[in-house]
Design a protein that fits this description.
The complex is a heterodimer. By secondary structure, chain A is α+β, with helices and mostly antiparallel strands. Chain A has 7 helices and 28 strands. Chain A is elongated and about 80 Å long. The two termini of chain A are about 35 Å apart. Chain B has 4 helices and 1 strand; from the N terminus they run ααααβ. Chain B is elongated and about 55 Å long. Chain B starts with about 25 loop residues before the first helix and ends in a 27-residue tail after the last strand. The model of chain B is unreliable at about 50-65 and about 120-140 (pLDDT under 50). The chains are: A alpha+beta, B mainly alpha.
Chain lengths: ~425, ~140
């Protein structure tokens, strides 16, 4: 018999009545007696690693390939077979029709009489697509008859590049919850593009950073970019690969500069050439000490943002905030102050107090957000105060959960980061 | 491995024995519909399933059929077949005719996942509800 795990050992029934795993790091293995005869073993394992990663990009689950533990410790076992196979009581029917099935206990079988192909092929049956579908079953999803859903029972010829749509994401999050976690920093990166007619277009991309990883967030699609997170050094050349504390974009008529802060140091970023400056126009080398570049600012800092209204950088450290004038290159008078005094709660008691993870001005929302842990507080804007004058200047609106406004910002297991 | 001569395996010969039986008549259509949960197992089959500890009825091949694939069915079985057919047609986005027409035949022969579309589990509220499970101890 195919080794059947304990049906209830590591599962509990979720609110929707479908069973779901009760732990969030799951082990999988392509079993040795179940290799396909059509693709190399490395190709098979790569495709399965990618299929599992696609589910962890949209759910709090993480998956790790486990080729060493005893088989009973492996949660999801995958294998190929033909006809009567792998101790399974549902024999395969040969080429055509049934191409795979998933056992609720975590076994997935693929009919090796089908012509399975890799992601780059346009013929045959995409093993990646079938694997994502069958893993969906093992995680607790039934067939879903919605065009575009990866859980449709019939195989649709391989679209150029299939991804999980909004409803599939919500279906799995209905079983396992949303993706939560604190961020190192969040920012909109502004870049200038010259149109073919020579005009300069200003564009921005939104980035969420957590330790050594980052996601590009596609505001118009309400999700992160397919295939994220990726390692920092892939997209941000020269900043510390284990993450940063803060990002600041100084942007006024007379000056523009992008800075990353980490520990006692800071880097200036060359947005034109997408890498850090080695030294600035005065010949000073980077990274530089924060205490040198921003006299009066302590380090390390928790977070920071540049306020274009008053041309000040606001540095947050513990329960205090430091306003720094970029014009005079000095601390503004009367600072530091308590964060609560500069950003008072609109609703008493609902305030992050200190240790802010990120101070994020969003061009999408045209609003400033303070993020801490899995929560965020939106700062009351001047236009809003014009309509509702009783709101305090820079007041913090009651908190919300980050995963209720920015969706699908999910970790993946470090072993599948570099796919 | 399957025999081929072209470098890209495009001429891979699949022995006919490995071909899935094409669904051509109502008899096979009925097997398809019960395999994927559109036709519920009868009470008798349910007892058999419980006793043998499986929650998926291997297709009982002993349904009597006439020479051209029609199946002798009682009135209630005919109704069950037609309503199951309509359910499948609706789920597959086909015109809901209740007739085993070409579009339905084509859809049934398309590559698909082997997990039933409908709970085949006689009692969906079982603690270890599952799509396909062998429970060794029969008292469950």
């Amino acid at each position: 018999n195919s080794s059947l795990g304990n049906p209830t050992g590591n599962r509990n029934s979720s609110k929707s009545g479908y069973m779901a795993f009760s732990k969030d790091v799951l082990r999988w293995r392509l079993i040795g007696e179940g290799y396909s005869s059509q693709l190399t073993v490395d190709e098979q394992r790569y495709i399965f690693r990618l299929a599992f990663r696609m589910w962890s990009e949209v759910s709090p689950l993480e998956f790790v390939e486990d080729t060493w533990s005893p088989l009973e410790d492996v949660d999801i076992k995958l294998g190929f077979g033909t006809g009567r196979h792998l101790g399974c009581n549902q024999k395969f029917d040969g080429t055509g029709q049934e191409f795979a099935h998933a056992w609720f206990l975590g076994d997935i079988h693929f009919d090796d009489d089908e012509h399975f192909t890799g992601p780059s092929s346009h013929t045959g049956i995409s093993l990646l697509k079938v694997a994502v579908h069958e893993i969906g079953h093992v995680l607790g999803l039934p067939h879903i008859y919605r065009p575009g859903s990866i859980m449709q029972p019939s195989y649709l010829p391989h679209e150029s590049s299939f991804e999980m749509d909004w409803m599939d994401r919500k279906a799995i999050q209905h079983l396992y919850g949303g993706c939560k976690g604190r961020f190192s920093t969040v920012f909109d990166w502004i870049r200038k593009e010259k149109t073919p007619y020579g005009d300069v277009k200003i564009r921005f991309n939104t980035y969420f950073m957590r330790d050594g990883w980052y996601w590009l967030y596609e505001n118009r699609n309400n999700r992160t970019r397919y295939g994220d997170p990726v390692a920092l050094q892939i997209g941000w050349h020269g900043i510390p690969s284990d993450g940063v504390d803060a990002y600041v974009h100084v942007w006024s008529r007379r000056r523009e500069a992008v800075y990353f802060f980490k520990g006692l140091q800071f880097w200036r970023y060359d947005s034109e050439n997408d890498r850090v400056f080695r030294h600035d126009s005065e010949g000073r080398r980077y990274p530089r000490l924060i205490s040198e570049g921003f006299p009066g600012i302590p380090s390390p800092i928790d977070s920071a943002f540049y306020d274009r209204r008053d041309s000040h950088i606001y540095f947050f450290r513990r329960a205090q905030v430091y306003a720094f004038s970029v014009e005079t290159n000095s601390l503004a008078s009367g600072f530091p102050k308590h964060i609560r005094d500069v950003f008072p709660p609109v609703e008493s008691g609902d305030h992050p107090d200190g240790s802010i993870d990120a101070a994020y001005f969003s061009y999408s929302h045209n609003a400033l957000f303070l993020l801490k842990g899995t929560r965020f507080w939106r700062v009351v804007g001047s236009r809003e105060r014009w309509r509702r004058p009783f709101l305090p200047r820079n007041g913090l609106m009651p908190h919300k959960e980050v995963d209720q406004q920015w969706f699908d910002i999910c970790d993946v297991h470090p072993t599948s980061l570099k796919l | 491995e399957k025999l081929f001569h072209n470098r890209d395996h495009s001429d891979m010969q699949i022995p006919t024995s490995h071909q899935a039986p094409v669904i051509t008549d109502e008899y096979e259509a009925e097997l398809f519909l019960s395999r994927y949960g559109f036709i519920k197992p009868t009470q008798r089959e349910e007892i058999q399933m419980k006793q043998s500890g499986i929650s998926f009825m291997p297709l009982s091949r002993d349904i009597p059929k006439t020479s051209h694939g029609k199946v002798h069915k009682s009135e209630s079985e005919s109704q069950a077949f037609v309503s199951a057919l309509k359910e499948f047609q609706m789920a597959s986005g086909l015109p809901v005719t209740g007739v085993f027409d070409d579009a339905t035949k084509d859809a049934m022969n398309k590559p698909r996942c082997g997990v039933p579309d409908k709970e085949t589990d006689p009692n969906p509220h079982l603690e270890n509800k599952s799509l396909l499970t062998i429970s060794n101890d029969t008292h469950k």
